[in-house]
Amino acid sequence: MLSSRHILGMDDLTSEDIARILDTAESFAAVNERRIKKLPTLRGLTVVNLFLEPSTRTRTSFEIAAKRLSADAINFTASASATVKGESLRDTAATLAAMSCDLVIIRHKYAGAPRMLTEMMDCSIVNGGDGIHQHPTQALLDLYTMKQRLGHLEGLRVGIVGDIAHSRVAGSLVPALLKVGAIPVLIAPPTLLPARPDVLGAEVSWDLDEVLPTLDVAYMLRIQMERADGMPFPSLREYARFYGMNSARLAAMKPSAIVMHPGPMNRGVEISADVADSDRSLVLEQVESGVAVRMAVMYLLLGGADSGAAA
């Protein structure tokens, strides 16, 4: 079990919770290697994916995780829900509450939407990404991926590169790294940093090339192309020149250093195709880790630990 019945942000998890999730995910990763990947652990429980913003990796990952634990997985998307007819999130929550769900994963464009659900529903809530606030299970799967490749987390220097100011991935990854004893380094032009980056507890640099040789992980954030016209830098080409990960920059890193990206990637902008497809890129490993980590989250939130079924 975890110390909180909800995961709305990294503040809901202690360092012990994180260790428990990562250890449990390792058991489920072994299950996912089997020919028959299904476990009876959450049979009879209902998991709702309430995704009111577009998503491929996160939504699919949660759905697969729920089904592999034998839960009944129900998917709601923005286009298929009553929100397109004007229904409020509060009314949607009340409707789902009346259906006696056991766990709701919500993605919403507004920060704070998952917390609203906790006030309306008597079930566990997991934040699948809310606005530019947080995306905690992404941070957890990233920690798991780093640990699997590098063998440890404590003391790792992790450079988070790109649009820090608008990134819910960075919003969760920075506190997650601090909780496990790693060292986050924010690397971006000043216009893509929050107004007070120092309060996050991370190191800050404007110069990627200067910092690269010291990093164990280069975590490249997606440039949000849907907002590119209003982005506070001259052009995507100039951004790639100063902050894009390419083969020359990869060669400047430690031989053991790795590259990560939460996806979807803009190849040729924040990461070049040759780096994205190299054996030092863990992009696909992150996707694979997502299923095991989200299985662990569901298992621990819904009392699966009492059954011993993760063994």
How do the helices and strands line up, and which of them pair or pack?
Layout: H1 15-31, E1 46-51, H2 57-68, E2 72-77, H3 89-98, E3 103-108, H4 113-120, E4 124-130, H5 136-150, E5 157-161, H6 168-179, E6 183-187, E7 203-205, H7 208-211, E8 217-220, H8 236-243, H9 247-252, E9 258-260, H10 273-276, H11 283-301
Parallel strand pairs: 1-2, 1-3, 3-4, 5-6, 5-8, 6-7, 8-9
Helix pairs in contact: 1-5, 1-11, 2-11, 3-4, 5-6, 5-11
Textual characterization of the structure:
The protein is α/β, with parallel strands linked by helices and 311 residues long. The chain has 2 domains: 10-135 and 290-306, Aspartate/ornithine carbamoyltransferase (Rossmann fold), CATH 3.40.50; 136-286, Rossmann fold (3-Layer(aba) Sandwich), CATH 3.40.50.1370. It has 11 helices and 9 strands. It has helices at residues 15-31, 57-68, 89-98, 113-120, 136-150, 168-179, 208-211, 236-243, 247-252, 273-276, 283-301; strands spanning 46-51, 72-77, 103-108, 124-130, 157-161, 183-187, 203-205, 217-220, 258-260. The longest helix has 19 residues, at 283-301.
